[in-house]
Design a protein that fits this description.
The chain is α/β, with parallel strands linked by helices. The protein has six helices and ten strands. The radius of gyration is 19 Å and the shape is elongated. One of its GO terms (molecular function) is metal ion binding.
Length: about 230
Amino acid sequence: MDTQEIVEKLKPYTSCDVADALIKLKVPHGGFLAGLTMWSPKRQEGPIKIVGPAHTVKYVRNNYEPETPPSGHYIDSIPKGAVLFISAPAKAINACYGGLMSTRAQYSGAVGTIVDGRLRDLQEHRDLEFPVFACDVGTTAPAEVMRISAINEPVRLNSEDQDAVIHPGDILVGDINGVVVIPRALAEKVIELIPSQVEADEKVAADIKKGRGVHAAMKEHRAGVRKP
C-alpha cells in the first residue's frame, strides 16, 4: 500500500482511533505526542484534521557545533501532501516557525505543520486557514538563539515524560484531540485494526443511549474486536 492510499484510508478516523490501534500494536502511549495542540485555523476548535507523511526539520542552539547546516531554505523542499514537523531545542524561548513559512508551505501543497516548540505570527496562519499545531506561541524569530541543522532526518520529541522519535515518512495525524505518529512500518496494520474497533464503539454508544450499562455494552461489542 503506497503512502497516499494509507493517508486516504486514515482520513475518516480521529487521532484517538489511531491511538487505540497503536496501543494494540504495543506502541508506547498509542503514538501520542504530548504537548502539541492546535493553534490554527482556530485554537482547539473545529473539525480540522491533518494526515500525511512527516517531513522533518531539526533546529539546534547556535553554539551546537557537530552538524553542518543544510544549504537553501527548508521551506522550499516540502513535498506536496506532507506534514511539516519542526523540532526546536528544548525550552527554547524564541519561536521557530512564522507566517511566511505557512504561506510557502500552503503554496507547496503541505497539509499542515507541527512545531515541537513555539510558533509566531499566529493571526497570519489563521488568515491562511492553514493548520498549525505547536507547544506554545512567541514573538521572536529563531536566529538569535538557534539554527537549522538537519532536514528530513529523525527527530526526537522534546519531552521529559516520553521517548518518541519522528522519522521522515512516518504518518502524522493531528486533530482537536492532539497529534499521533504512526511508524510507517505499522501503518497498514493500523488501517486493518481501526474499522472493527470504531464499529464496536459505535454499537456501545448506541446501547448506552438506550439506557444500557457501559460494562454490559462493552463486554458484548468489544469482546470480538480484531486483535493483531
